Amino acid sequence: MTAGQITAIQPAQEAPDQAGVGPLGPKPRRISAGRIGLYAFLIVAALFFLIPVYIMIVTSLKGMPEIRLGHLFNLPGEPTFQPWADAWLHACTGRDCNGLSPGFYNSVKITVPSVVISIICASINGYALTFWPYKGANFLFGLLVFGAFVPYQVVIYPLIIGLSSVGLFASLPGIIIVHTIFGMPILTLLFRNFYAAIPVELFKAARVDGAGFWRIFFHIMLPMSLPITVVAVILQVTGIWNDFLFGIVFAGRPNWPMTVQLNNIVNTTTGVREYNVNMAATILTAAVPLLIYFISGRWFVRGIAAGAVKG
């Protein structure tokens, strides 16, 4: 091949790069019927949830004379935060008129220990079931998973009898034990699936180096468990904070959580029904789970995906 032929071939070989040719095939259509339908569904779903929130917020910022005008969707003419202060400090929850603040502190006292204890126990259970299998481990795991589908109402009476026999019924330790027990099955399932996705070679290498049960757990498994731990925290905090049934049955009147206090505020029949105070109390009760979702939402999806790799 002559030098002239080589020179003629080289521009032909460089032409695609110089022209910036992209991937072959037809370009995807930016607008399609499926995409329009998807966005329409998402918009409708968002409005379905956001319109009640909007009504709650604007109603909580109105005075009762403005609410009686019946303009539900109108912005407040003279915004006021007095209903929020009344909901927190002065609203009547039955015979007491101390607002939601006692219920908030009771919910914190119930939620924090219950979340910590249940996550610690579930993580250890999931770790042991995955890397330290013993005789009957699969049967025990099946019982735990079955417990996640048992209706709460079925076991309320046996729990009342059991806690009463040991002097824990209608007490703070009693309600903490109940929430820990009912959070154990689903959390154990999440942690077990998460640890099952971890390469077993990592566990074997630690065993070769002489690490035991607790050393492997605290130095290797636990630091890797942040995504699934965030999922567990969100699920437990949301479930325990929003719980009404266990709170009213097992906590006892001095320890009634925020949800029970909210129910008493909304259903108080004496005097004038203050819708602005009721709306403010509802938003205050839901604020903690919403705040946790907003702060750690990106970890929630990542942890759920990591915990669903293996069954």
TrEMBL record:
The answer to whether the entry has keyword Transmembrane helix is yes
Recorded hits in Gene3D superfamilies, A to Z, give: MetI-like
Extract the InterPro entries matched here: MetI-like (IPR000515), MetI-like_sf (IPR035906)
Does this entry carry the keyword Nucleotide-binding? no
Q: Name one GO cellular component term.
A: plasma membrane
Q: Where in the cell is it found?
A: Cell membrane
Q: How does it sit in the membrane?
A: Multi-pass membrane protein
- Record's keyword terms, sorted: Membrane, Transmembrane, Transmembrane helix, Transport
Query: Which residues does the UniProt record annotate as the domain ABC transmembrane type-1?
Result: 104-296
Sequence intervals crossing the membrane = 36-57, 110-132, 139-160, 166-191, 212-235, 277-295
Which GO biological process annotations does it have?
transmembrane transport
Protein family according to the UniProt entry: Belongs to the binding-protein-dependent transport system permease family.
PANTHER family recorded for this chain?
ABC TRANSPORTER PERMEASE PROTEIN, GLUCOSE IMPORT SYSTEM PERMEASE PROTEIN GLCU
This protein is called what? Carbohydrate ABC transporter permease
Q: Which organism is it from?
A: Mesorhizobium waimense
